[in-house]
């Protein structure tokens, strides 16, 4: 039986090739994602280890926002730590966002990762972290050194004048040197800017203050003195914490792993979708193969093979097919990961450099997924092998498949449960995450029911589509529709693969369009400011800039928008702040209770948050401010949700005394009546040439809210393209095997006058009909589930209505038809080139 199975695989290799290809794509997705994740994580971890090589102990400010005072991490502490026995070097550092501006006025490298820090030479005058490669290190204000790659990218040489965005403004400086560093952020494609220590402290902390002090052992020390951490801890002031070098490295490693884990999980989800679509193809292929081999398998039973032997033989074929596909997919996935890493070199999305990492777990999971999915998908068709009686080998006509009554009843029941449960959840559930989960579950139950009903639906829908097809294409159209209806199960399996992809694309498109429209309307209503001025980096806008904006002509009101972490009513929250006078003029608050007149002294709370905590106007709320100071605030207003504002809001006069450095990245500006265009010209003239600042109109802000959703949808479309590609393989596979089954029939049609062109049209129309059926089901389900999901999404009190982008959905349907016609190209050509006499002689 083993030899027979191997001979069968060799004989069926052409028919199984497309099935193997579907497995290859799915497994390649899994292997590529895992290899990419492990490679990036390992490179980031290696970079983190380099950053803290030789560090025994680190001293830093306690990250707890409740710490009342900033610890004195200053030069005196550095000197005291340097005097401890067993210490080789002590380095005080202070860092923050800083990015170099090139000669064209553009920011260089990965802006979000760009960093500025101080050059901290030891007693020998050398900073061990940054090796000077040309020129010298900065020693005074107005001097900077940048990393070699940043200098090459920006086109600067030692002695050039350049601009650096840092500290909420733009600095003019002289490039006095370039450096080489093993900093992880440089490996990520960011620029590194070195300042003298005093300048860095003024920009990123406070005069004389560090944010991290590292203590290293002498170079040849293999094991640090166990008493060193305790000795360091005895000198550390209150409000600071000591951590070992191993802990610092571990934190960086965990941060790198967390950064890639979320991305990998999302990508593996799409890989799972692709594999799920592939199961339809595998099931369909083995069903068709077993159907063609019924007489052969019955003959094996007749000559003495047992049911178990025959079943195991066919399952061995599935196992071998899955193993070949998994191995090829593993190799392709590793190659794709290596190619993607190489492709990203030199781009803004460049990952950290490091070797390609292929872990044993990647190999194991890839093989398990490929083989497991194939065997599981082929399990149901192979069960039918055991039911083939030996006498079937002697029958002229083989029995047809069992009826669909039980399957249809189960599918109908699941649809009723899913739709009914979703409707009841929307009508009666209180909202929130639980409601969203219930709606998704109900939607999946309904979709499963539709999948079971597809054979029945294919008869009705394709029968309906057959009429116009016959009118337009005549006999060819009639034959195509009848061929599509010849085996409803086969048509259903082929259409299901395409349906799943279009269902997900359409559903996410409806959700994305609904979110975009609702947020856009809410933002247009919630923001009364005409413009916003913000920093291009993650640092705060300078107070002098805020004052300057307020004094510009054509300005009616200008308010900085600050946020800070605070403990409110026993929980950690972000607390927002606006100017007590100008704030209500630049942001509209739809008050349910209270009003804007109490903003100077009171707390404003968003309605949903207030309801959840039982707050109303006049209630008092315990607050622990960012500096650790406790306080009590009176609720002065309760407002409906605003996508621009946070749920908790106070005035800058309330928050600023508790901030070491009042921070704010945005200033909202409202023009005098009828002077909006004049104000835009004034803002562009004042700040347009400053790379540290960005001027946006109200429409720009609204487009910014939509841009994130558009980007996410585009990524999803690209990832779901793999599922659609596998669906195309399924259509090609089904049509190719169908042509093979109908060889004699096609020969007969050719013999009675159907020419090669019309044979090609016949196959193409059949493919287009099946694809249109799958496309209509997919978009119909996607629209229904998308609308239900929108009803279950909770955005506070921002009204969220369903928006159905009909034009885009129509393009999806047309794309489905195009996919079918494209998939039919090879089977149609093969059918048209058949020899008439050879086809008529086929059994």
Can you describe this structure?
The protein has 843 residues and is an alpha+beta fold. The strands form 3 sheets. Strands 3, 4, 5, 6, 7, 8, 9 and 10 form an 8-stranded mixed β-sheet that branches. A 6-stranded mixed barrel has the order 14-15-20-17-19-18. A hairpin with a 2-residue loop joins strand 14 and strand 15. The model has no long low-confidence stretch (mean pLDDT 80).
Q: How far apart are the termini?
A: 25 Å
The overall strand count is: 22
Structural class: alpha+beta
Count of helix runs:
26
β-sheet strand percentage: 15-25%
Give the uncertain stretches in residue-range form.
Answer: none
Most strands sheet: 8 strands, mixed
Tell me, what's the shape?
globular
Rg over CA atoms, rounded to whole Å, is 34 Å
- What is the residue-averaged pLDDT? 80
Q: Please, what is the oligomeric state?
A: single chain
Assign a percent range to the helix content.
Answer: 55-70%
List the helices and strands and how they pair.
Layout: H1 2-11, H2 13-51, E1 55-61, H3 75-82, E2 89-93, E3 95-96, E4 98-101, E5 115-118, E6 130-135, E7 143-147, H4 148-154, E8 161-166, E9 169-181, H5 184-187, E10 192-195, H6 197-204, E11 212-216, H7 228-235, E12 240-244, H8 245-292, H9 294-302, H10 307-344, H11 360-383, H12 405-428, H13 433-473, H14 475-486, H15 488-526, E13 531-535, H16 543-551, E14 555-568, E15 571-578, H17 583-586, E16 591-594, E17 603-606, H18 607-613, E18 620-624, E19 630-639, E20 648-651, H19 652-655, E21 666-671, H20 676-687, E22 693-697, H21 698-741, H22 743-751, H23 756-792, H24 806-823, H25 825-832, H26 836-840
Parallel strand pairs: 5-10, 7-9, 15-20, 17-19
Antiparallel strand pairs: 1-11, 1-12, 2-11, 3-5, 4-8, 6-9, 7-10, 8-9, 13-21, 13-22, 14-15, 14-18, 14-21, 16-19, 17-20, 18-19
